[in-house]
Amino acid sequence: MTIDRKELDAAGRVRHETPPGPRTEVPAVDRVGVEHGASGSRVHLEDVKAYYGTKRVLHGITLSLEPGVVTGIIGPSGCGKSTMVRCINRMHEEVPGGRCEGRILLDEIDLNGPEVDVVGVRRAVGMVFQKPNPFPTMSILGNVLAGLRFVGVPRERRIERAEAALTDAGLWDEVKDRLSDPGVSLSGGQQQRLCIARALAVEPDVLLMDEPCSALDPAATMRIEELITQLKRRVTIALVTHNMQQAARIADVTAFMLAGELIEVGSTDRMFTDPQDERTEQYVTGRFG
Amino acid sequence: MAERAVLGVHRGRQGGAGPGAHPSIGGRRRSLADRIGERGLYLLSLAAASLSVVIAGGLVAKVLAEAWPALSAFGLDFLTTSAWDPVHGRFGAAAFLFGTAVSSFGALLIATPLSILIALFLSELSPRRSRGPIAALIELLAGIPSVILGLWGILVLGPVMRDTIEPALHDTLGSIPVLGNLFGPDYSIVGMLPAIVILTIMTVPIVSSLMREIFATVPAATKEGALALGATRWEMIRTVVLPHARPGMVGAVILGLGRAVGEAIAVTQVIGGTEGIRANLFLPSDTLASRIAGQYQGATSDLQIASIAYLGAILLALALLSNGVARLWVRDAAGAAA
Ligand SMILES: Nc1ncnc2c1ncn2[C@@H]1O[C@H](COP(=O)(O)OP(=O)(O)O)[C@@H](O)[C@H]1O
Ligand SMILES: [Mg+2]
Asked: Does chain B have fewer CB atoms within 10 Å around its N or its C terminus?
């Protein structure tokens, strides 16, 4: 059970050649909104604990992200949403003292397995950050090409892939005449869509979005939300948000976290109308704390 | 518009604290002591700043005044004459300009890649725990008095150079057309090459620690953006860290160059102190700084003293120039990054 560069095709997609590992039952999630024939991978977290140094911030999370589904992750600030999604593409390792225990499966591959290459994990599991972070020294096009270079897409195919990614991110028409302008010359919302295009270009199986709209105005937020809804057919999406209306609008499944625990997960409709846990109810009705 | 909306939210929130209550704005009178203190601090810092300008100006004036006899005797021909002949009263800076250029550029040629590697290793590659101790060790190098380094150059480096390194360089590189003339065939304990090595040792700590600071300014979000796309650590360094840091790195190298150009004592100890322009790096040579340090005491005529002061004026101009250029460069870099 390994992901290394050899097992990734030019698209950066993981080839699933390994025999299925033992699969544990997970709490049933109402699979609403699942597009038929959606591509993307299934992510399964099993008893995931995360630490910064000796401080434990995730206390055993078990959760699945299903293909074709936008999984919204809500919860008060500091409850561990970012930490959890960062564990999925192992970005938590970039924080000094950051480590995680438990199993995280991408389809059948244990992402923390001894022979798994972290670079391969990040190619399969893309990430969009809270604050748009286009590469400041690169042009609009250069930002998208950078990832294609990392993945090893042949030079002659990069431009066409970049155009496709910019189109998919709904940015092509706005930037096609200014591709060589600096990426940071775009507006905040455009920058975030550029970052989405950059992530899509390497064709990940999973896209982690950590409060992607929190730095954006309502109009830009709406464009990104539309985009997420379109993209979920192609890529499994985890959407961290502090904005419950956003979760209600675009998440098919919503997970509620509190103080490093996953309190409840279910179809978004049910989570907002008929939460099973008292704490979920308090949170979604804004009567928290 | 977007920002306004956001601001509006904040303002709304602040307003919630109580209508019209802004005790921090104008509500409180500052105490008399506070106002006197601020005024006093302003005057004190103004005085300190003026004093440093006056001292710098006085220094330049003094050097020029001392150099005046040589300036009027030789004019700009001084820069292109390589003679240094106290007996016949003929002096020129060309040999020392050449020696300064070769020794400083030679040192930076080695020190720059070395410093980049050290800085990258310490800021991006090495295990976090080891970074502090290694950085401290390298910065300790900067604290070695240059006289001690020069002594080491005479006692240890020189013999090794003459007996091992220079013959080896000659055997491997000596046969290359043109470039081969730099390497041999005469070997010597003192000479240009030991001076280059000493200057390298002196500049690496400074340049590498400057570069480390520059690498630290690359935003974590930018680096994470690259890593999250599946960049290896090296790909991240090459595509986001180095481009972001490049202007600052140039500034660091120019500052290192200024340091190498100005270093006198250790160079005087190992370079051999002869006049003349020679390609062979193994032979003794001399630089502006080490000529000033080596000959001022023993100068035999007023014209020789004035000529040494002229060398000083050139050195001063070079130092100010490199410092100014480095500053402008770093400032532009900061401006472009913002
Ligand atoms: N780099 C870090 N070092 C130490 N503790 C951290 C670090 N980042 C986050 N934490 C802690 O981990 C907990 C979860 O943080 P985070 O995952 O960022 O929460 P959220 O994204 O839900 O706001 C918080 O208590 C926070 O203080
Ligand atoms: Mg967060």
From this structure: C
- A126: exposed, middle or buried (Cβ count in 10 Å: 0-12, 13-18, 19+): buried
Name residue B220's amino acid. Answer: A
Higher pLDDT, B58 or A23: B58
ipTM score assigned to the predicted complex? 0.84
Give domain limits for chain B: 74-337
What is the per-residue pLDDT for B7? Answer: 35
Q: Is any ligand 1 atom within 6 A of the Cβ of residue A32?
A: no
Ligand 2 centroid – CA A257 distance (Å): 12
- DSSP class of A185: G
pLDDT of A2 higher than 50: no
Which value, to the nearest 10 degrees, does the dihedral of the CA atoms of residues B25, B27, B29, B30 take?
Answer: -30
For chain A, state the CA radius of gyration.
18
Residue A170: is its pLDDT beyond 50?
yes
How close is the Cα of A283 to the center of ligand 1, in Å? Answer: 20
- Using one digit for the tens of pLDDT, what is the confidence trace for A106-121? 888 888 888 888 898 9
Question: Cβ of B228 under 8 Å from any chain A Cβ?
Answer: yes
Can you name the CATH fold of B74-337? MetI-like fold (1.10.3720)
Please state, in angstroms and rounded to a whole number, the distance separating the CA atoms of residues A79 and A90: 18
